[in-house]
């Protein structure tokens, strides 16, 4: 049987659960830095990065070398049975990068959802409270608790019944769609008056820049107001930096740029350069609220993934990828704004560092989000050899998540394809 896209996708549909979606009808065979080749031999420029997982590129040589070295030692013991140095070393290195001038401790797990689940467990144990406040447009994962936090029913929770209780929804500030920072704070105060006493709220969970929700950037002033509100009520502030973390925004964690120190910070995605690793870092006394045995997992903090993450941190330092993220983000925003002058369908261009998006509207009318155009743009770009992702509550946002290591010529080629597609479709 030949292994081409058509036959492999037929096999996929016959054997993989329907709920596992797939954006592009492509089966990848190999990749290098910002390029992917499919099983038919076609080459694509990768502006998706495995959904923000490949800030250091596909198969960075230093990451692969670290993994190969670790494979020659051990691949698994379960850290709760026999510890290993890479886990400890990574916790030490992450603590240096998470904002906050205080003693920190870290839990390592495998996925972003796990990190968020555990952050809620830790917050509940530390405060003796059960309630959690999350925001409209939020995305925190697909497990049951994180689905309760996630502010989008379809497709993530459709048909699954009600999610765990004790989660309350505040309005995310979004000037573009008419929600001011004052309105957002007022919606939290309203929860305290109508749904749950502030004394029953363990944590407020927020993405410094919304990911799946549309790449809306929370301002420093809003984040600082949120920090003050939490402090006034004894509520923990949890920063979900799963997508913003690992250097995407121009600082290793986005909160560094927003002048806010969370009590707990979650991370995942690009921290290990494509290997499954995630975690929670926070104030030592908060992290230690759970007794031994209450945290962990069989594969949590895999030695292979820890070795990869330690290499990623070195790559960021040696290749100055934080500055590259800032420069790349500026280039992206400049080019997209130039396209916006030619195509009025681009109603907004925004971002923090290299976490950049453009939002599309019918004829530039901000009351008419154009999800159809976003879908066509993703499809047309793929036909031209460029992998894009859409997102947003209305499905009308194109997000740009190419590796920070992408060569300038390839970046320009990809952006030119975006321009060509807009000229053909808009």
UniProtKB/TrEMBL annotation:
Cofactor: pyridoxal 5'-phosphate
Family of this protein: Belongs to the class-III pyridoxal-phosphate-dependent aminotransferase family.
Swiss-Prot/TrEMBL catalytic activity: 5-aminopentanoate + 2-oxoglutarate = 5-oxopentanoate + L-glutamate
GO biological process, alphabetically ordered: gamma-aminobutyric acid metabolic process; L-lysine catabolic process
Entry EC number(s): 2.6.1.48
Keywords: Aminotransferase, Pyridoxal phosphate, Transferase
Protein's name according to its UniProt entry: 5-aminovalerate aminotransferase DavT
